Structure formats: structure tokens, C-alpha cells
Predict the structure.
Amino acid sequence: MAETHMAETHMADFLIRWHAMIASGDSRALPEMLAEDVEFRSPFAFTPYRGRRAVAGLLQTVIQVFQDFRYHRQFVANDSAALEFSAFVGDLSLKGIDLIRLGEDGRIVEFEVMIRPANALLALGAEMGKRLAALGIKP
């Protein structure tokens, strides 16, 4: 019971910080929100990305690519959250879900993204590929 309460407290605190970071557009706090061994599952890569540096670079890049990004709903259960969002990539509208799981210390240990429709996902993938290659991160 105490573990469940602790996970819920971590999640509540995390969501306040996460939404404030997204609203401000300033992602400098992002690396500290990630566990050292965080795992990120991209909607266009089979193999997950691992590690704070790579995942921070990916998320900071996608924040720059998305236009008119906004969260709509969130569903929380203990140490996990599903955040529904919408955004544009160029003139293409997309919808997606961020699935986030926190570790015992309140940092992200797993982050998975699902996006639709396919044409917007492909446009996002193309733009992310260009930007990540420039950063030396293998898309």
C-alpha cells in the first residue's frame, strides 16, 4: 500500500514538472527527469533507444519538430501514465500517445510513443532522421 502511494506521489509531482516544461518550451530540465538507463520506444524504430543522453536528444529534437503541440487527456495508474496529444508536422495533423513509466526515484525509466495517421508519422520520421543525423544520433 505504501509503495502504491509513493508511486502515485512521484507521478503527480512528475506530471506537474512535465507539463510545465512542455508549456514553457524549455527542455533543459529534461535530462534530470530521465533515469540513467531510460529506454525509449520510437513509433518508427524496432530497437529501443537506451540511455539518458540519447533519449534526451531524441525528445528535445521532437519538441522542436512538433508545431502546435498540446496534451488533451491523461490516464494515470500508479507509476505509469498515458498522455494523449496532438500536433502538426508541417501541414500534417497527427494524434499520439506518450506512455511513460517512472522508476522508484520518480524518473522516467520507459517512454513509448504511438502516432497516427501514417502520413504524418512518415513526415515526422523523415524530419527526425535529418535532425538526429546532424546530432550524431542514429535514427
Observations:
- The chain has a mean pLDDT of 91.
